[in-house]
User: Fold these one by one.
Assistant:
Number 1:
Amino acid sequence: MTHPAAMAVSAAASTGPGQRLGWSVVSGLSGVAAAVGTKKLLTVLWTRTTDREPPTNPADPDTGWGEALSWVVAISIGGAVARVVAQRAAATGWDRAMGSPPPTKDSAPAKNS
């Protein structure tokens, strides 16, 4: 039985530029989808909870500190969590579709010095 680390090294060695580009696209799109979905979800939750729209510009002097900071914290944490979840899901899908984990920076071919 082959050790998982050896399998990962083998998969990394066979990773070509097309796979790295493909993973960059999949990874990027999953991050964008996560960001858009998270903002929509948090906007709905904010509106239902506060009976007001979230601040469009937290730096606006008419927006209170508490409201501005609450929105920024919610959108930042929500976005970060959603990005991790989306990219892990994308990596799982990539592994199932391609039969190997997504390429990493370590899988890039060595550059000539």
Number 2:
Amino acid sequence: MNNHYIADPVDSALGLLDIIVILLVDDDPLTGIVLLLLLKTITDNRLIRILFILLLIALSST
């Protein structure tokens, strides 16, 4: 039984994007953490979650 975990680059990218969103939220880092937790609980699809995170990054930079 070979139960090896194969690292998925999308999972690594999601972790990095989560950290970027937390750092980019201007008012309070707690707001970024809450937003990411909501995204994690609402969306099961990783692609949709990445798109929402990128949208948050775009909206916070303007």
